[in-house]
Model the fold of this input.
Amino acid sequence: MVEQSDRAPLLDWEEVPPGQPPPSGPSLDPSDSASSEPSKCRPQGREGGGSGWALSPGAPGSGTAVRGRSPHSPSIQAGPEGDAGATDEEGDCAFTGLSVKERRAAEWEEKDQIVAVFVVTFDTRSGNMVEWCLPQDVNLEGVEFKSMASGSHRIANDFIYFRKGSYFGLACFANMPVESELERGARMKSVGILSPSYTLLYRYMHFLENQVRHQLQCPGQYSPLEAFYEDKKAVLPPGGNGLVTACPTSALGTMVNRCMHPEMKITHPAGCMSQFIRFFGEQIMVLWKFALLRKRILIFSPPPVGVVCYRVYCCCCLANVSIPGIGASVPEFRPFFYINVADITALETELSYVACTTEKIFEEKKELYDVYIDNQNVKTHRESLQPLLRINSADREKYRKLSEQRQLLLYSQEVDGDCTTNEEDLFILFFMEQNNRIFQTLLEVAGSADPTLTAEHVRAMGLDPQGDRGFLVDLLEVYGIDVMLVIDNPCCPQRCFGDLM
Done:
């Protein structure tokens, strides 16, 4: 069987038929923007539902109860127009039947949204510095360190996803040896772009790689970048504030149901998910629990950092839920991608995130994270979370099913030429259906006459009644679901609940 590459393909920058030229707008300050990133509808191989899981409730038992500490429980609701989502015959997101607002949202998403283009260089006297940018008055403070990861001088090339204020960036870095005493034998540059969404950045990876090589060989020749910016710059909406707005939130509910959390898409799959699965193995189930609990996850790795940015993306995919209303009251699970010491102040106020870094000093900043991943070593300094590091029998069974489904998919792709579903779809759907299964069960129990969660319910959710007890307690508290947790203790014939309070 042919194994896929660990690296996503570099896509050519292809010209599209020009529409109306985008209007020029005032200068942008990414750090002041309050917009959220838009989604981009993406094809899917099958429904991302997950509702309607059969329950096998056991007999209620007596004992002390554990309840979610929030006084309310979320309820299952339909989308904005009562539509649970639909796909067309080819499996693509179906936009027929969408309201005018939703159609406008979909059309808005397809527009190019490049708000800045820049070149960063390493100067032997001044260090990292922005050499050139468009527009010239854009605030790029700190981008010179985000687009050149610490330690990059030891590698030949890399690509970096990062966040700058409310914008996301992609930069391609290259290091070329030169016979120059002034440059100390090496010329290092990065060429990057900023956008309000990270979902479309992958389109320009190949262009940025070509341009950084061009900048190394012909420093100061910016005309290709100028033409690129004029062609792809963001269409600024009317309103006078000069900021690129997000996709209208009123349309997002239905679109997310239809399109299976499309904002997670950062690259066409060809190794991203398979590398993540092979790299972490069964520990994916540990990361899944931390992601669902909205913990602060920091991944350390030496350069190159591009593949580590993909691990940030994969971690975000673990927490997808398509049941409306779930997660509305919990912190947003946001990708920061690459961070450095300049981001410490911003991280101090974040309640939930996933990020990666090449700077070992972050390991000492324990107040900034809950979970620290050093290559394949997942650890936490929080005593309450340490039991979640243990892999139980239910975790192993879920990983076995994921591996089995993945092997079947790879076999069908190689032997039958079946490309209707890809590895990324499989990965995202696997965890989305698992998450839906858990929350569907919890909501049905919470809304029943006897809101008691038994061991049978827990098994029906694909969890271990004993090994996942602490995880369930935390889950009920984080999401504010009001049920009583009743689980047998294998050490004695009676039911024991005192240690759950």
Notes: DSSP finds 13 helices and twelve strands in the chain. Residues 1-110, 236-265, 490-501 have pLDDT under 50 and may be disordered. Residues 393-416 form the longest helix (24 residues). The two ends are 51 Å apart (CA to CA).
